[in-house]
Amino acid sequence: MALAINGRAPTKEEIAIKEVRAKLTDVILADKTFDDDYYLLQWLKAQNLNPDKAETMIRNSIKWRADEGIHTNIAAEFSNEILEQFPIPFSKTKDGVPIGFVHMGKMNFKKGVTTLGRTGWNKYWAISYAQAEELMIAYNKTYSKDNGEINSNSTRGIVGFVDAKNVSSLQLLNLDVIRRGVDSTRTLMNVFPAMFNFIIFFNMSTSFKVLFNAIKPFLTGPALTVEINGTDEKVWRGRLLEIVNLEVLNELESHWKSPK
């Protein structure tokens, strides 16, 4: 029987956190990021609170990040031109949760893949994910509400908005673009699990569904909700404004210039 915490029985989440901590003593000593119950809980949630699977996922992620040189300083790796052409701005929802916004219709993915190559393009997105994860960790440390106990609702992943307006059919039907989309989605789900609480796609055209159908099988997880909205601006904008204030949405949308 698990030991009581402050006179009460521990939650299943607290039991799982204690077990995974015991398995990761060496990891925690080497990287204090993992000395954080809320961060460990995100990994556990990605594996349905299975400590053994969470440990394996964490160790695999650490190794992959080290092998690929993944960090959070994207400006140290990529030119200003790339950063301007493929911006991923972050802000906050009405209740303070970090949010990332990708305007796929104003990103020339074919050019990005051609310019950076497979390795560089995948690294660009992996570092962007690492930045988002850093925001998630900071949010959960500051705002998590455990009310004296840790449960599944004690932590939250971030929110993602993906605008697919005017995505070129020529890009979406390009085999390299599709393959790199699958690569980056796999990286997201395998290396940065439970980072997103939900992702909202909107302005999704028929042609965009070609790419979406390719990545959809990999865009799954017990803590992730994927929401699809079509091209009716009244509908999708109303949905987004339930989550963010108008000034935040305007600021996020202002980051993109015309494709070059």
UniProtKB/TrEMBL annotation:
GO terms under cellular component: cytoplasm
Residues in CRAL-TRIO domain copies? 75-260
**Protein name, please?**
CRAL-TRIO domain-containing protein
Residues annotated as transmembrane:
none
Q: Which PROSITE patterns match?
A: CRAL_TRIO
Species the sequence originates in: Allacma fusca
InterPro entries (alphabetical): CRAL-TRIO_dom, SEC14/CRAL-TRIO_domain
